[in-house]
Amino acid sequence: MDLAALVLSFGKSFLFALAAILPIVNPPASAPVFVNLTQGHDGPTRALLARRVGFNVALVLTGAMLIGTYVLEFFGVSLSIVRVAGGLIVAFAAWNMLHAPQMADDHKAEVAQSLNKANVRIQAFYPMAFPLTCGPGAIAASITVGASLYSERWPLTLANFAGGVTAVLAAGLLVALTFRYAGRLLRPLGEVGLMVFLRLSAFILLCIGVQILWTGVVELIQTIS
Q1: Are 10 and 167 in contact (CB under 8 A)?
Q2: Which of 116, 1, 102 is nearest to 49 (CA)?
Q3: I want to staple 129 with a disulfide (CB 3.0 to 4.6 A). Which of 40, 56, 78, 171 is the partner?
Q4: Under 8 Å between Cβ of 134 and 29
């Protein structure tokens, strides 16, 4: 197996995984959600959260790509069940965001003071990384990509998975950078425009959650019909 073939396999797997996962993760679409959930946090705390969310997204997707198929087979869980459960969580979180009142300035200060390093770690995984940024759709896509990277020759398999994991790391980095500068990107909208944009983003997220849920339900119905 020559080096050129391995490099070619790496590049193809990288582009394939990035094209399959990044549009579903879609960091710009999640940026308003991140801004809404971090109201009252100061700049350094938001930067820390952004880095941890990006790291958690990369970690979850890498795990799903490498061992997701084996885990689901071990517990007897299908991708349809994952979609149903994940869709419910996403829809519930979006519903709460859609009807959440605007946070007052004194409450923002209280939230900022109550946030410690332990809370940052918790929030950076749930709900920011999972399921709002890296939901069941992205996990299912990552598992599917991982299943397609196997080859009859182990050098090609290693090159394929190296490209796939690199693509996942790139997606996590894009999430971290997008969330880190989300405030600057959305600042031109103003306070009223940002609130409108947040409500619209929450509604779109609710629709995505319902769509994920419905896709899982349809797949389950087809298995018994």
Answers
A1: no
A2: 116
A3: 56
A4: no
Name 136's Cβ contacts closer than 8 Å, sequence gap at least 6. Answer: 82, 83, 85, 86, 87, 90, 212, 216
At 110, which helix (H) or strand (E)? helix 105-114
Q: How far apart are CA 174 and CA 80, in angstroms?
A: 28
42 CA to centre of own chain: 23
State the pLDDT at residue 109.
43
> How far apart (Å, rounded) are the C-alpha atoms in residues 122 and 6?
39
Distances (CA, A) of 109 to 39, 115, 195, 208: 9, 10, 19, 32
Query: Pick from 59, 218, 49, 46: which is nearest to 134 by CA?
Result: 59
In sequence order, which residues have a C-beta less than 8 Å from that of residue 102 and are 6 or more positions away?
Answer: 195
CA distance 24 to 175: 12
**Is the distance from CB of 82 to CB of 136 less than 8 angstroms?**
yes
Which of 93, 70, 72 is CA-nearest to residue 81?
Answer: 72
pLDDT score, position 225: 65
pLDDT lower than 50: segments of the chain: 103-115
Q: To which residue do tokens 């582009």 refer?
A: 15
Would you state the pLDDT for residue 108? 40
